[in-house]
Design a protein that fits this description.
Elements (H helix, E strand, L loop, with lengths): L1 E7 L6 H18 L3 E8 L4 E7 L2 H8 L2 H11 L8 E6 L2
Antiparallel strand pairs: 1-3, 1-4, 2-3
């Protein structure tokens, strides 16, 4: 399993709008992105994380350049972000 973790700095007042973006694009992510297995929204006091599960590192990297991510998700979140997202890919062993 490969995990794509995207950490987002979003003010508490903007988190409901960010959660709506997550909900809107979860099903299209799981249904249309090659190798997509899971997608979870993790909320903590300091930030919000979206944890994506993939079957390979290649598919995780490909998602980051897909129109769903670059146009839809990033476009919808852009006005809500306080800083550039921190993007990391992990491979479970």
């Amino acid at each position: 399993m490969t995990y794509l973790e995207i950490t987002l700095k979003i003010q508490e007042k903007n988190r409901p709008a960010a959660a709506e973006v997550y909900k809107k694009y979860k099903k299209p992510f799981l249904d249309t992105i090659a190798g997509a297995k899971t997608k979870e929204l993790l909320v903590r006091d300091e930030d919000v994380q979206v944890l994506h599960g993939f079957d390979s590192v290649v598919h995780a990297k490909n998602y980051l350049s897909s129109p769903l991510f670059t146009q839809d998700v990033v476009g919808a979140l852009k006005s809500l972000l306080d800083a550039a997202p921190d993007v990391r890919i992990y491979q479970a062993v």
